[in-house]
User: What shape does this take?
Amino acid sequence: MTALSVRGLSKRYGALQALRNVSFSVSSGELVALIGPNGAGKTTCFNVLSGQLAPDAGEVELDGRTIDRRPPREIWRLGVGRTFQITATFGSMSVRENVQLALASHHRAQYSLRGSLGDRYVAQADALLARLGMLEQAERPCALLAYGDLKRVELAIALANSPRLLLMDEPTAGMAPEERGELMSLAAKLARSEGIAVLFTEHDMDVVFGHADRVVVLHSGEVIASGRPDEVRDDPRVQEVYLGAA
Assistant: This one.
């Protein structure tokens, strides 16, 4: 079943056409990689999907419901989670507290960053951390974590709103080679068991071709190829504008 549908998405910054008539879809339980050289439009596309930017033209639907031009908080509540290239956690708070905070926001609970969440949502937070192999570090401050573990915490935070769509922006950036495959295998397992549609950007081609079900290639704001990893890898234009350099 199609979870995300993107049709004719366009975005311009002055004279720069960042996105031009971009269309693709992601099904429930599917991992789709959005790749391309620097400046191809990947970040702009992600920012439109998550509400940071409004498109000039086109439509974005999540489970048949239009989500483009809505504010980020509303899009998050409708079931879009996101992780970022640079991890965004509260370093002075524990791993568990970071996830509790995301759960409190999901449940629209009243809280203060200067107060304490106490035992609210502890069971739910620990369940998420257990699935990501982080329960043993639940009480550690995020500032003391290794980078690979921070990525797992950020994934737990992104899963706190039970997303239908998970956007992962450079999920393995900064990670050791052996950690990259582990994180993406974990993301794939969660996506398929929970029926989550996953769209991710990535510069590591081993990660892309080793884990994506389909690959969409952007170049100068346009989709130049889309299909199974082997089809995209063998596409002459993709090899010319991206894979040769990558």
Q: What stands out?
A: The beta strands are 2-13, 16-27, 31-35, 57-62, 65-66, 80-83, 165-169, 197-201, 214-219, 222-227.
